[in-house]
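The data layer described in this paper is built around a simple, fixed record for each protein. We quote a single record here, exactly as it is kept in our systems:
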Amino acid sequence: MVSRAAKSLFELLADFERRSIAHDASGSSQRDRDSTWDGVVFRLGSHRLTVGITEVDEILPLPQATPVPGSRDWLLGMANVRGNLVTIVDLGWFLYGSRTPITARTRLILTRLQGRYLGLIVDEVFGQRHFSIPEMVEERPDDEALEGLVDQVFPQGDERWGRFRVNQLMTDPAFLDGSA
């Protein structure tokens, strides 16, 4: 049996919900969501990049990786992250041919490749930002390594954030063939 106090509390919460929905009857929040793009912003070398928030499962400090014999140097190995097997890739090493310096700011961006976890090592993660889609500019990078991976830029003040396309990286045959 439901007590009178519990019933009145439920009615109060239901009233809050009705008023909240009615308050946004104009759809302004939906329009705001439709005109913004949410991304995780990070640094790779001297490049400021962003990847779609929906493409990121988690941001982690660099875990200990077990090397995979016969793999490319940039494929650092496999790690156990809370019971999940994660392939660890040094993104800077893959793109530029030199190892990413490991510092206190180095992070692993956890994403998925064909349903399996993949960790991309980047120099630094700054957090999440909301970008205005109307301000996005079609722009090819002046860096050959990012060709095909970045083709749009979000200007914000003095900074320009290149939209990094993880799905394009994951279709690159050189990336998919991690064997030496």
The longest strand covers residues 36-44. The chain is about 25% helix and 40% strand. The two ends are 68 Å apart (CA to CA).
